[in-house]
């Protein structure tokens, strides 16, 4: 069963659609792995991973060891913990028990900064994620550390879909092009993030379209730039609100659309592989 995006998606209807999408994904995306990865930091990767995980009712596996990653943003503080749940699971060979997120954030498996010095091989990470997804029998969203590293490579090898966010700028476009070239043959989707429609942005938007055409990569709905997001202190998913604030409607609608597009793209990949 394919979930349809309503033609008129606005206001509280967006929140009703997210609730429906969460139920649909839990049933139809079991064991599906979606990875969020980029060659460059600072493109909104961890925030997008968090919102995808929430909108798809997925377990969020955080492979980003920096303090700016998803785990800390959701309230998991490594300095208050003695062990890394993710590394403990890898060392023991057991499937980790996700930290419950309740109604306001995704369930989480954090790693923390010790992952940097104790990186598993790509093959080990790949096999572990596939096994965890099977044991949880749920969709999984994986956030990754930017650039090349073994855990991220393993996650991308396990993924049914890799979402690669980009913001606008010359360096970002070069990084996106390199990522697309180096991952030819992967099931990718470009997610334009923090988009503003001004004259200076036009060449970069055209460059995204060119990269997408060259490497035959779909492009998601754009995610707009909003000033308040960078200073937001709430340790919850943006999309978890119960009533729609006017100031957040555009952003939450964009996240809902990207989650829906990611879900259908990942589902198609599983059907193609069957």
In short:
With 274 residues, the chain is an alpha/beta fold.
Number of helices: 10
β-strand amount: 5-15%
Oligomer: single chain
Mean pLDDT: 96
Distance between the termini: 16 Å
The main pleated sheet reads as: 6 strands, parallel
Shape: globular
What would you say this structure looks like, in words?
The model has no long low-confidence stretch (mean pLDDT 96). 44% of the residues lie in helices and 10% in strands. The chain has helices at 12-28, 45-55, 70-73, 85-92, 114-117, 122-136, 150-158, 170-182, 202-215, 249-273; strands spanning 33-36, 59-63, 108-109, 140-144, 161-166, 188-192. The chain has a single domain (12-273), classed as Rossmann fold, CATH 3.40.50. The protein has 274 residues and is of the alpha/beta class. It has a 6-stranded parallel β-sheet, sandwiched between helices. The two termini are 16 Å apart. Helix 6 (122-136) crosses helix 7.
What key phrases describe this protein's structure?
six-stranded parallel sheet; 274 residues; 10 helices; single chain; Rossmann fold; alpha/beta; 6 strands
Question: How is the secondary structure organized here?
Answer:
Elements lengths: L11 H17 L4 E4 L8 H11 L3 E5 L6 H4 L11 H8 L15 E2 L4 H4 L4 H15 L3 E5 L5 H9 L2 E6 L3 H13 L5 E5 L9 H14 L33 H25 L1
Parallel strand pairs: 1-4, 1-5, 2-3, 2-4, 5-6
Helix pairs in contact: 1-10, 2-10, 6-7, 8-9
């Amino acid at each position: 069963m394919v979930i349809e995006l309503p033609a008129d998606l606005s206001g509280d209807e967006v929140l009703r659609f997210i609730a429906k999408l969460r139920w649909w994904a839990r049933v139809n995306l079991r064991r599906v792995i979606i990875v969020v990865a980029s060659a460059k930091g600072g493109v909104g990767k961890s925030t997008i991973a968090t919102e995808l995980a929430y909108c798809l009712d997925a377990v969020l596996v955080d492979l980003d060891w920096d303090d700016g990653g998803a785990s800390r943003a959701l309230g998991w503080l490594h300095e208050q913990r003695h062990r890394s749940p993710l590394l403990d699971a890898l060392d023991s060979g057991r499937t980790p028990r996700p930290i419950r997120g309740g109604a306001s954030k995704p369930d989480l498996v954090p790693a923390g900064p010790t992952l940097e010095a104790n990186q598993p091989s790509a093959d080990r990470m790949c096999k572990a994620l596939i096994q965890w997804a099977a044991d949880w029998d749920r969709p999984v969203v994986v956030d990754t550390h930017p650039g090349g590293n073994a855990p991220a490579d393993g996650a991308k090898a396990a993924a049914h879909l890799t979402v690669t966010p980009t913001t606008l700028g010359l360096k970002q476009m070069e990084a996106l092009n390199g990522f697309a070239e180096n991952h030819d043959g992967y099931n990718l989707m470009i997610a334009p993030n923090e988009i503003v429609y001004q004259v200076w942005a036009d060449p970069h938007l055209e460059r995204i379209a060119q990269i997408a055409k060259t490497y035959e990569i779909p492009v998601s709905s754009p995610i707009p730039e909003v000033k308040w997001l960078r200073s937001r202190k709430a340790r919850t998913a943006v999309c978890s609100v119960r009533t729609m604030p006017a100031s957040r409607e555009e952003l939450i609608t964009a996240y809902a659309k990207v989650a829906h597009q990611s879900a259908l793209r990942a589902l198609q990949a599983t059907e193609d592989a069957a």
